Amino acid sequence: MAQRFFLGFLEAGISPAFMLFVGQYYRKSEQAFRAATWYSFTGGSVIVASFISYGILRAPQVAPGKAGPWPILFYFWGAVTLLWGVAVWILLPDSPLTAKFLTERERYVALERLRENQSSIEVKQFQIYQVREALTDVRMWLVFCMAFCISTTNGLVSTFSTIIIQSMGFDSYETLLLTVPSGVFSFVGIFVSGWLSSKYRNLRTAVVCFFCVLPIIGCAMLWSLDRVSMKGALLFATWICAPFSAGYAQCMGFSISNVGGYSKKTFAAGWLYVGYCLGNIAGPLFFKKDQAPGYKDGFMASLICLLIALVLAITHMLYNIRENKLRDAMGEIAQVDRAFEDLTDKQNLTFRYDI
Fold this sequence. Notes:
Layout: H1 2-11, H2 14-25, H3 28-39, H4 41-58, H5 70-91, H6 104-112, H7 128-135, H8 138-151, H9 153-166, H10 172-178, H11 180-199, H12 204-224, H13 231-240, H14 244-257, H15 262-285, H16 296-329
Helix pairs in contact: 2-3, 2-14, 2-15, 3-11, 3-14, 4-11, 7-15, 8-14, 8-15, 8-16, 9-15, 11-12, 11-14, 12-13, 12-14, 12-16, 14-15
């Protein structure tokens, strides 16, 4: 339990930090695809890790009579993570302004291309008023609740899908390999969602809705199909639940591109991840031990949460459309260039919200 606590504690800053990096390096039109690219490897890691873990677990024991190959598995992935962390610490600059691999002119160009974002790059002084604004911002709460509802499905995909697969008669090694398609669906779904959002302007809400519908269908199948005669369909249903993470990737995109002010953006990125974590905590609670392996209540709860996420996504879209129209109606007042000033999206009337 202590190990899992510290694993989660040390991992917690990764997604918010990556979100800030994307906001500091890329234009709004590029951010969704860039965020989805790195986040898609949550699915890619399932693919790679499943095969490597299978190989390690099937290998002869190095020390017979000991705990078996499981410690080797943790030593291996722990070492890879540690080494990569050191590489990131050395090679990844905080922002384009501190990138040593860029010349002075290239840093200026990298900064100037971000002018259309109408947002600051990096401000060392923390502005508490921006946090207060974030806490009263309807958009932030809509995206937070979307992240929570979507992430409840993670309990189904990451934990209970293996139980469901094993209940079909597969052993633990076969189950490990049969989780690979879930990683494929997740990887492709997240990557495609980012590409669509970048290629077609203001399509993010539609993308969120589509990648909520897929797991809704999967949950409905898992809830309704017979456990004995429909094993193939049930296996497929567990796989199509995995692209729920593409919807969360778009929530990250909203928190990057639709928030102005460095302190507000920092807080919003962290707060979104809190919603994600709470969803991951709540999700497994829907799956009751006395209902195994059917878990009827769990699948129905996941389905309802995804339907709520759909409603929240559409509400978020309509709210942003309304705000953009109000700012457009202000004419020249809302056209003053305030790029690189540490202003929030509410303060900067030139700022426009992605939908």
